[in-house]
Amino acid sequence: MAKQAAGEPAPDFVQLLTPDGERIERATGADGVEYSVDFTDEEYRGLYRDLVVIRKLDAEATALQRQGELGIWASLLGQEAAQVGSGRALRTQDMAFPTYREHGVLYCRGIDPILPLSLFRGVDQGAWDPNEVRVNMYTIVIGAQTLHATGYAMGITKDGKVGGDDGEAVLCYFGDGATSQGDVNEAFIWASVFHSPIVFFCQNNQYAISEPIEKQTRIPLYRRADGFGFPGLRVDGNDVLATYAVTRTALDNARHGQGPTLIEAYTYRMGAHTTTDDPTRYRIASEVEAWQAKDPIARVRAFVEKQQIADAAFFDEVDEQAKREALHLRERVLAMPDPQPLTLFDNVYPHGSPEIDAQRERFAEYLDSFEGSAH
Amino acid sequence: MMAEKLTIGKALNAGLRRALESDPKVLIMGEDVGKLGGVFRITDGLQKDFGDDRVMDTPLAESGIIGTAIGLAIRGYRPVCEIQFDGFVYPAYDQIVSQVAKMYYRSQGKVKVPMVIRIPFGGGIGAVEHHSESPEAYFAHTAGLKVVACSSPQDAYTMIQQAITSDDPIVFFEPKRRYHEKGEVDPDLTYPLHASRRVRPGTDATVLAYGPMVRTALDAATAAAEDGRELEVFDLRTLSPLDLAPIYESVRRTGRCVMVHEAPSNVGLGAEIAARITEECFYSLEAPVLRVTGYDTPYPAARLEEEFLPDLDRVLDAVDRTFRW
């Protein structure tokens, strides 16, 4: 098997929309299943809107980091289609387990975009309520969440919530680098052995910080699934239609009791891993240019223009909405207060701890010792 | 159930059984916990009675056991994970200290992971390497985890149920070389989980121990009494949070304290406890707090472990030294 390298053409993936905006009616995946979508004009426009807005919000967050308002930012630039396609495939009752880059998935779940920013600003550690929003907290340790997702999916089975349209499924995100982690491989084993309702969604953005995909694998990642005993397939991760189609089918299979699926969304991180690294040190300009030609937003725009299902006024209005949401986000980030010092000691233990209480008391006394203190 | 004599192993089994009966959300998971009943038979018969949906044999991967238990806990279950031996917990270390311990904190109290991680710990059973370690300080050092160690059948029975009903994630250490020691178990006895306990009153020096060393400390106290020296012995029971107030009171009376544990001394629990006693009881101390511990070596080969492990004589020697100060 020839090794696969960043920048090489991606073989045998499911694609329903070419980089030029041509619709492909049906495509067969490596799992032998034929995939298609049947969206209304309104739904096509909605997908375009999602893609534009999350790219703009992401750019705003990057700018906020550059201006010192965020400690760090993990940009999703280039991965909008993978996130919107999979995020929109979730049903209300499903649960998603993200890494720390799934801002677009959160957006699709209706989650206030300020919530992930508070994590990167250092105001909290990503304290949204997973039970309410049906997206677990971001996980920084690579691959750790794949086991949590699998355990959660095991719980769905125990609760008898599989086997029908109203069943629940789990969508678990991770990157190409994570596939080298033991936890991810253990999650595959558990999910397979317990036949759990989970879809593993690997966004292969070609780089784990600076390490290209050939430092993680000698075979296409989706083929790993074979060794664990469940289907795997690769989708064009820059194609929002194909990503939606394969994810929706895999989630439906999971909720109907057909067990796990591995989806490899073949995409590209256009920016840095985070705002702390410099991709010009580890990748060449021509590679980035080649991927720019596969931009996930440009192809949807080309498609809807060709189909004449959106006019100039629509595109202007989407741009205006994106700008408005970005400005609103910026204003709220700048207005976000620092947490109160004593909250440091909150929520260490559900039942509390006398040791923490004593430390809180001593710290409060210390703060009070400053003239004019009003913590 | 009337009070009866049980071994620590049987008491744990009875406690787990009662927890499974009391709450359908309680799960037991680990390697060999089902048909075999665990390598120490602590879960003996539970799968037969509660089914493999409640008592789950898992693939052989510790990180997977803990990591999937986290997901089950988020889903509303109360998993009780068995790690077969102390030295096997390290592949799960990241999941325990980075995930289990921090879920509640980073979610600002919105996500609880009410799980128990059972670890048979300590040496003295003549095992090969990785089967006789004392990793408790690693976990006691991590905020967000609570760490306890049982030393008697009563505590084994009571504390395992308390740990399971607690919403705090708990690392539960079991003294594997004491699994077969018998004692009275009263099923209706109630007392707090996170409390140290005076297990023998005395006036001349305070001896602190937990887990397998409690028996050693009591034996030393019996021997010391024959020489006319009355040692007050405490079982710490809770390693995080520590419950030191009753111990401060004891040390202020006796003026002398010896801390005993199997784990190496360097940056161990004994160091923390000695520091705190020094801070709180400085003017009452007649001698520094002394530690009797395993040495700062890897756990040795079985034929050397009796040299490594604190025994009655090393405890008495330390007590003698506190009197020579």
Automatic annotation (TrEMBL), chain A:
Keywords: Oxidoreductase, Pyruvate, Thiamine pyrophosphate. It comes from the Bacteria. Its cofactor is thiamine diphosphate. Residues 52-328 form the Dehydrogenase E1 component domain. SUPFAM superfamilies: Thiamin diphosphate-binding fold (THDP-binding). GO terms for molecular function: magnesium ion binding; oxidoreductase activity, acting on the aldehyde or oxo group of donors, disulfide as acceptor. Pfam families: E1_dh (PF00676). CDD domains: TPP_E1_PDC_ADC_BCADC. InterPro entries: Alpha-ketoacid_DH_E1_comp, DH_E1, PdhA/BkdA, THDP-binding. The keyword Oxidoreductase applies. One of its GO terms (biological process) is branched-chain amino acid catabolic process. This is Pyruvate dehydrogenase E1 component subunit alpha. It comes from Phytohabitans rumicis.
